[in-house]
Amino acid sequence: QVQLVESGGGLVQPGGSLRLSCAASGSIFSILTMGVGWYRQAPGKQRELVAEITRGGSTNYADSVKGRFTISTVNAKKTVYLQMNSLKPEDTAVYYCRGSFTDTYDIWGQGTQVTVSS
Asked: How far is Cα 25 from Cα 107, in angstroms, rounded to an integer?
């Protein structure tokens, strides 16, 4: 089985940048075949997709983060990054890393808090 652990969250001023990391461990074959994504959930709001790389290799971003956030992977997907630039207070949320193996089977990290405030 594959496990995911997020890191890199914290407090940043509006306009600043953060890079979130998601470390994957377990079956190399499973890691190579999984889709990966970043989601976030703010208080009182629904969890939403931020960015993803699908199992088919396509990349999708939420409209609210296009041009500001970038998802990428290195080391055969063992690390998934979310580079966040030009951060806004409305980006404040708990960010979760997700690995997708089928339409119904996925795994989640425990989340990392991102707070954008002056």
From this structure: 12
